[in-house]
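User: what does the whole thing look like in 3D?
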Amino acid sequence: MKLLSFRLLALPFLLVVGLILAGCHSATPLPFRLTNLTGHMPQLEFTLTNDEGKTVSAADYQGKVVLLFFGYTHCPDVCPLTMAHLHVVMQRLGKSADGARILFVSVDPARDTPAVLHTYVNAFDPHATGLAGKPRAIEALVKRYRSAFTREPSSKDGNYEVSHSSAIYVFDRDGNPRVLFTPADKQDDLVHDLQLLLGSGDPR
Amino acid sequence: MKHAPLFALLAGLALAPAVHAAAADHVHATHAWIRVLPGSLPAGAYVTLENDGDQPVALSGARSTIYADVMLHHSSTEGGMSRMTMVDSLGVPAHGKAVLAPAGYHLMLMQPNAPVKPGDMVKLILTFTDGSTLATDFIARPANALDDGGDHTKH
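Assistant: Here's the predicted 3D structure for the full assembly of 359 residues, as structure tokens:
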């Protein structure tokens, strides 16, 4: 009984401490190696369908360090290479990778259904989730991060490519944009910055 | 004297047919692999081509009994945008090499008529601009592979 009342009292206290810490965390400058996005872009916000067919929003990923990437499954070269690199990054993070989530947002709403995305992302890494949505919802998210994509003209067999931004946007556990990773950046730097955000590795 | 360069050119042309063997005869293919994606999604094929001949050659594409369509593509990233473009051919310099690798040149394999699984060997017939061909075995690798896996099988 005593234990229970202590717990009941402790809960709001812990919540307040948690909020303060969370607030401090987002304000605290971290020695990032990649391009620092802190304060330069809006918080993570979207409503899309995950690869299990469920409607999800940014709030569902609260508490996770999010790696946001725009791509499409009919992309045979650059998208799978990026996903393969992210798989290596997740392996290098070890156990702490469980605190991170790769969000692969499809810029090809016509072909990428949740089912297609599900088998696709799982072929790369268990920490990846595919997100699909109506063209308008995808465009809104792409614009929010000043990204872009263009559907190229179809070939005679109806196949087409989608040119898209190659950057990966990294958000902290509170959904604040923190760093930008581009293909020109070093994988070591991404691992370093993710360790900072996940609170592991380098001393702070 | 002033006709010397022209003479050399004519002599070169006259000799050319004699020394000119089929492009494929001088090309060796190594590190041939395919990144297999789930379902019937298009896959990328990669290979290193070495030309030990005295003449440059050019790869024009490939054909396969498994994939209905194969295209030679080039990926590029400019101004933060990734795009793919179809290319007619890729030159392999005399005594030089051309590398088809992720985020650069690759063969895009489309519409497989049978499932291709990691570990499978897939024969692609590489075609050159002179019409010659080189049959090459490509190893199918998982989606999240970064290379042909050669380094991993050694230990």
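In plain terms: The longest strand of chain B covers residues 67-78. The first helix of chain B runs from residue 4 to 19.
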